[in-house]
Design brief:
This protein has about 200 residues and is α/β, with parallel strands linked by helices. It has helices at about 1-15, 25-35, 50-60, 75-85, 100-110, 140-155, 160-175, 180-200; strands at about 40-45, 65-70, 90-95, 115-120, 130-135. The chain folds into 2 domains: about 1-20 and about 140-200, no CATH class; about 25-135, P-loop containing nucleotide triphosphate hydrolases (Rossmann fold, 3-Layer(aba) Sandwich). The protein is built from 8 helices and 5 strands. Helix 2 (about 25-35) crosses helix 3, helix 6 packs across helix 8 (about 180-200) and helix 7 packs antiparallel against helix 8. The chain is elongated and about 60 Å long.
């Protein structure tokens, strides 16, 4: 029981949004400029490339943000109830997961200003035509290593350099996916803690 709780706690800490988004400085600067100007835009890229983290960082200083994850609220009715309240910015995360019907497309068109997070191709979403786009490309192996290294140092994880490299390789093999890399890093940290506890017992 304690092991499951430990795994969950370590994973939550490792996957929590970092204070600084590494290797996305240019994209973040652009997003902040668009938010400052009250512009709507799309953040797109493969899974695990920092899209949601970037979008949340961009609206961090905004007074009222209506955030909705389309992974949990997928239908027009569910999304409408969350998006009809007045907000300074609307953030639709995982819009790819929404069940898009004509009413939802019209609702999304009407929201201003908004950030919409999607997987490519962006052209598949006609209701997002004309919006500025910020691309989040897959991470390179060296970038994933540095992301894992930073997370391990900042959180004082029980991992070594081999754990960092193995986690980064796993993320790279999954299409440059930082989420996969960080999940493997968390698994290795828990396994190392388990081994240390077994040796002390």
């Amino acid at each position: 029981m304690w092991l499951k709780a430990l795994e969950r706690r370590v994973l939550e800490r490792v996957l929590a949004p970092p204070p600084k988004l590494l290797f996305r400085e240019r994209q973040l600067e652009r997003a902040l400029g668009l938010v400052e100007g009250g512009e709507s835009f799309v953040v797109y890229g493969p899974v695990g490339t920092g899209k949601t983290t970037l979008a949340l960082a961009a609206v961090r200083g905004v007074e009222s943000v209506a955030y909705v994850s389309c992974a949990s609220a997928r239908t027009y009715s569910a999304l409408r109830s969350k998006l009809l309240k007045p907000a300074a910015y609307y953030l639709l995360d995982d819009y790819t997961m929404a069940l898009r019907d004509p009413r939802l497309r019209e609702l999304v068109r009407s929201l201003k200003p908004k950030i919409v997070v999607v997987y490519p191709p962006v052209e598949a979403y006609e209701e997002l035509e004309g919006l500025e786009r910020i691309e989040m490309p897959p991470y390179a192996l060296e970038e994933l290593e540095e992301i894992c290294r930073e997370r391990a140092a900042r959180l004082a994880l029980a991992v070594d350099e081999e754990d960092v490299r193995a986690a980064a390789r796993a993320g790279f093999e999954h299409g440059g996916n930082a989420r996969v890399a960080l999940m493997v890093l968390a698994e290795r940290a828990v396994a190392n803690l388990q081994r240390a506890a077994a040796l002390r017992a």
